[in-house]
Inverse folding.
């Protein structure tokens, strides 16, 4: 007599059984990446916006001087 995992559909049954584990593992990875990136965004985004503002002001001043 065949066991539950010895039938012809065993690979599909195993995949279905492990899908929850894979989903939770993916969610855990997403949380880890978010927690790792968030502090850098809190520092990097304001810095980027400040540098972009300075660049645009400098570009506008050069355009004014060229007239």
């Amino acid at each position: 007599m065949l066991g539950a995992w010895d039938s012809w559909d065993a690979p599909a049954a195993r995949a279905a059984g492990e899908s929850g584990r894979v989903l939770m593992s993916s969610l855990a990875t997403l949380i880890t990446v978010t927690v790792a990136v968030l502090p850098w965004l809190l520092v990097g985004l304001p810095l980027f916006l400040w540098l972009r503002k300075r660049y645009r002001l400098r570009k506008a001043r050069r355009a004014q001087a060229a007239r």
Q: What stands out?
A: The chain is about 85% helix and 0% strand.
